[in-house]
Amino acid sequence: xxxxxxxxxRLRQHAVLREMVGRAxxxxxxxxxxxxxxxxxxxxxxxxxxxxxLQHTLDSLTREAGAxxxxxxxxxILFGIPSxxxxxxxEAYAEEGIIQQALRRLSEEFGxxxxxxxxxxxxxxxxxxxxxxxxxxxxxxxxxLDVYRRIAVAQAVAGADMVAPSGMMDGQVGAIRExxxxxxxGQIPILAYAAKxxxxxxxxxxxxxxxxxxxxxxLSYQMAPAxxxxxxxxxxxxIEEGADIIMVKPALxxxxxxxAVRTRFDVPTAAYQVSGEYAMIKAGGQAGWIDERRVALETxxxxxxxxxxxxxxxxxxxxxxxxxx
Length: 325
Known about the structure:
The protein is α/β, with parallel strands linked by helices. The chain has helices at about 15-20, 60-70, 100-110, 140-160, 170-180, 205-210, 230-240, 255-265, 275-285, 290-305, 315-325; strands at about 30-40, 45, 55, 75-80, 115-120, 135, 140, 160-165, 190-195, 245-250, 270-275, 310-315. The chain has a single domain (about 25-325), classed as Aldolase class I (TIM Barrel). Strands 1, 2, 3, 4, 5, 8, 9, 10, 11 and 12 form a ten-stranded mixed sheet that branches. Strands 6-7 form a two-stranded antiparallel ribbon. A hairpin with a 7-residue loop joins strand 2 (about 45) and strand 3. The chain is globular, with a radius of gyration of 20 Å. The two termini are about 40 Å apart.
């Protein structure tokens, strides 16, 4: 078929028809809101590079979770900042660690109405800021897995509905699956940060989570931005080890990877629109250079179109309002 019989604009003339023939509808059911909670705060503190996001107290975290539910956002992922950081990151699995407290609080307050995902890593909890245990000047993969096992069980006991290992250690999904199953938590799913890149777009997150590495970088465990086939191998390994959902992070600069993953593997797929992606859109909108709402929605639809079933985004609460409007 060719012009004039085929006129592509016919299906664009009416707003309802445009929505009917669309193939990447965005819904609040797709979204997960990242939240930060910090031990020892008297009041929530603004995150300068991610307005209007906050480092929360337990009380303000609970209020924010309630506001998210009112906006139609039914899932959160929690990141904790402890009062004490030391080499072993023991606060990550302590019974009274900040994430364990937060999980119990949200479980008591909201029950099954709110899906509680616990990020599982060590970068927020160690004094060196790396995602694992450092031995002889490098991150020791297998020593780190032992700690990840403890964290996973502690989070499950405290009320996590899902755990999300983000450290990019070899074998982390299998180790966590084994630990959860052995502790009687075989029903807890794993959201694996399967293809996580060593991205410069994490800078605002590192301010929010107080997790910048104190020496070196994370290139020995996170992937180099040019890697593509490596990402597919990582995803395949995580699925083999028992991942229930796999994730690509960041989202927008890696849409080709996201699409390749979704095409090759028939498993639920998530993407993380990271802090730097959020901050650039937010700053551009505040400066009047772009329409923040339209750009945010356009990027999220692009992520859906590339193949994401689930999107972690700092725009979650705002999107709930926009979609409702």
